[in-house]
Amino acid sequence: MSLLFQPIQFGTLNLSNKIIIAPMCQYSATSDAEVTFWHEQQWAKYALSGAGLTIVEATAVQAEGRISHADLGLWNDTQAEKMKLALNKIKAISPMPFAIQLAHAGRKASTDYPWTGKGQLHPQDTLGWQTVSASELAFNETDTAPHALTTHEIEKLIQDFADAAKRAVDVGFDLIELHAAHGYLLHQFLSPISNKRTDEYGGSFENRIRLTLEVFQAIKNAVPQDYPVGIRISATDWMDGVESWNVESSVELSKALEALGAVYIHVSSGGLDAKQNIDIHSCYQVPFAHAIKKAVNIPVIAVGLIEEPMQAEGVLQYEQADAIGIARGILYQPNWPWQAAAELGAKIAVSPQYLRCHPHGLKDLFTSF
């Protein structure tokens, strides 16, 4: 029996299978960081795919925390109201749980659409703004140096994460994922490459993980008891010959997060330094998930070029992770879970409108929502 299509539980949230649609920025929000019809149709595709859970794209808790000027935000009630209207439409057509990833881009903010190739927009540009970080170190040599957050600004940041979490619950999301990966703000505090602070948020490992733990705790305090909160981390900076964030650091951070009540660890990697040297190949991040899985008792999600159903199944069969994150692959093949069910001999629940669409010979594949 396929492990990929067995149920899994993230805290109090039950999923029908172990396929997780990982967060993917769509760069399609309004200038006020509000949802558009693009998000509605994209979320609807996810909802009808048969996956166990969708995690909505990185959503900024502050205006300056957006990766680009076209990113979603959840720092005010108007954004929340419009997001709630959109999510209600999606929940009307599918029972799939939806989560949201709360984020702050830090020094990697203020970018243009990625397909323009322009990179970061400077504060004097019409659509640009001053970025912030742990220290005044830019990601690229051509970027504007970020402003190093003061302790007072850090306090406000923590509160803004908590306020966004409250809004996420009210919107109707079933789970919150905290984004501490890919070189964005929390990762910038975690890594000694980008964090050169000398106060309680810099220097030692305990100091560098402090902000991530404080933000996570603030979110837990802001949401109802037993409401599930997970986290995404970069397991390594992929930097050779320098002191950096690595798998050993990630293992210790994951233990601390488990103690605070994290319901899962979502394991990615990289994004912190432009000089990273990533060995990209099929399932290249799975060993990081495996290392963390061996150290914690909560579920671990593996992600990263897990493209074929048999690859996903193998990761679970060999106990390298507990669930599988699919991202770009499901953009290319929106019904990837259907394909996986067919190849692995499993059943998958779909909307009843689709019950007659399967190829001849697969009549036992689909069940109805």
TrEMBL record:
Pfam family name, one: Oxidored_FMN
Keywords carried by this UniProt record: Flavoprotein, FMN, NADP, Oxidoreductase
Cofactor dependency: FMN
Cleaved signal peptide residues: none
Superkingdom per UniProt: Bacteria
InterPro entries: Aldolase_TIM, OxRdtase_FMN_N, YqjM-like
NADH:flavin oxidoreductase/NADH oxidase N-terminal domain location: 4-343
Protein name: NADH:flavin oxidoreductase/NADH oxidase
Protein source organism: Acinetobacter faecalis
